[in-house]
Structures are given as C-alpha cells and as structure tokens.
From TrEMBL:
Organism: Chitinophaga polysaccharea
Protein name as it appears in the record: NTE family protein
Record's keyword annotation contains Lipid metabolism: yes
Motif DGA/G: positions: 159-161
Family matches, as Pfam families: Patatin
Active site: 47, 159
Residues annotated as domain PNPLA: 14-172
PROSITE patterns: PNPLA
GO molecular function, one term: hydrolase activity
Recorded superkingdom: Bacteria
Motif range (GXGXXG): 18-23
GO biological process: lipid catabolic process
UniProt KW keywords: Hydrolase, Lipid degradation, Lipid metabolism
Coiled coil spans: none
Length: 259
C-alpha cells in the first residue's frame, strides 16, 4: 500500500456538483481517494453528481460504475445532437438506473445519499433523502430548456445546480470534514465560444456565488482545472474527463494528504 494511504479505511462525507459530461470526473476523483483508503460515509449531490453518487451509495465501486456506463453506452445517449430534436431525454438514464441499481429507495442504500433538485415553481432547493431514488436523480439532472421538468408528488423539479451546485447543506448538521468536489472550473471568456459555450458560462456565473460560499465550508475542495476544456455535452470525451479527475486528485492527495 502507498505510504500516504491510511492503513485502515477512512470515511468522509462528500458533496458532488453537477456539470453534465464533466460529472464523469467524479468517478476519477473518488477512485483516487479510494486508492488512499478513503471512502464516502455519506454523499450529497446534484445533477450529474447525483448519478455517480447513486451508484456509489448503492455499493458499486468506481470501476464498476465505469463499466456500466461503457456497457450501456450511457454517454452516447446523452450527447447533444441539434435543436430540431426537441427536448433531450433522460429516458436512457432512467432505464439504466432501473436495470442496475440494486436498491431503488434511499433508505435501502449502503451509504446515506442526499439528492438536491430545484422546485421549478418556487426556485427553492429541495433535498430528497427518502422514497424513490430514480425520480429524484432525474429531477436533479433536468437542465431547464433542455430537459422537461420532473413531476414528483404534485410538484415540478429541475436541475439542482440552479439552487446550489455544491449542495453541502444536507451534510452540515450531522457530518464534519466534508470533502467538496466541483467539476465546473471557470475558464477565461472566449468571445468565439459559440452559443452553447455562452449558455454554459451564463449558468456558471449565475450559480458561482453559492458555490464559492459552500467551498469555504469544505475541509478539502477538489476542482480539477483541466475540466474547463470540456463542454457539458461532450459525452464522447468521458475517458479524458475521468482521467483528468483522477490524475488531478491523485496529485492533490500526494501534496495534501487527508488526515
């Protein structure tokens, strides 16, 4: 075992941000922590982070989750095509979750999971921690204008990033030494970036203040800078995204080991 690894497993609470395709970097980040014998004791997550978190809290390893993505070609099903196709669909994501999750309710999970979505009527952050997992994950991942809102218990919900893209709030009362993982580094503005790039940047700027506030509440904050080169719909680059998350975190943990 690496001399920087803990001799016994260490459990820490994690908060995982949204980020579209960049959310695949969460698996690389968690893999690097696992190699240091550090594992989640609870996860709060939204949007793409909640997809990864659902599998991890259900007892899957990061390698197993990668295999699921590859076997079901999940990334290809979420790639951006064109405006004429109308709304993008999370149907394939729902199907894969239904087929592969061992437990489909929050209370049956091995590790506590908190999924946040945004109430599309009030704009408030809603924390899902009981009942069915899959509708909550779909709601947390439904970017407005691109995906249709998800109806849960007579209320409509959309992407949780709008009300907090680093949703640490569910962890604050019961957990300490929270590790934050944010996969949306702000990159220099490029006037030639195009329409989707400008949409993404607008969303990032709109939610940046809450992310910076919650960053200060984390004992350790991971934000792989290299992810800025990827757009939220570049699902054909998942392996590159994973490797950046893994390599960046591995280096950080060598320089700043978790005590």
């Amino acid at each position: 075992m690496n001399e920087l690894s803990h001799p016994l497993p260490v459990r820490r609470p994690f908060v995982l941000s949204g980020g579209g395709a960049r959310g695949y970097a969460h698996l690389g980040v968690l893999k690097a922590f696992a190699e240091r014998n550090i594992f989640p004791e609870a996860i709060a997550a939204t949007s793409a982070g909640s997809i990864a978190a659902a599998f991890i809290c259900d007892g899957y390893t990061t390698d197993e989750v990668r295999e699921i993505f590859q076997r079901h070609k999940l990334g290809l099903s979420m790639q951006w095509r064109n405006w004429r196709a109308g709304f993008l669909s999370l149907k394939k994501v729902a199907e894969v979750l239904e087929k592969t999750l061992r437990h489909q309710t929050f209370d049956a999970l091995d590790i506590p999971l908190y999924v946040t979505a945004t109430n599309f009527v009030t704009g408030d952050q809603t924390i899902f921690q009981e009942g069915a997992i899959i509708p909550a994950v779909l709601a947390a991942s439904s970017v407005p204008l691109l995906f249709q809102p998800i109806l849960i218990n007579d209320a409509y919900y959309v992407d949780g990033g709008l009300s907090g893209n680093l949703p640490i709030e569910p962890l604050l009362a019961d957990f300490k030494q929270i590790i934050g993982v944010h996969v949306n580094p702000l990159t220099p503005y490029n006037p030639a970036g195009g329409f989707l790039a400008n949409v993404e940047r607008t969303l990032h700027l709109a939610i940046r203040e809450s992310v910076l506030k919650n960053k200060l509440r984390c004992s350790q904050f991971i934000e792989p800078t290299g992810l800025g080169q990827f757009g939220m719909f570049e699902f054909n680059k998942l392996e590159n995204i994973y490797n950046i998350g893994y390599d960046y975190t591995k280096n950080i943990l060598q320089e700043q080991p978790v005590s």
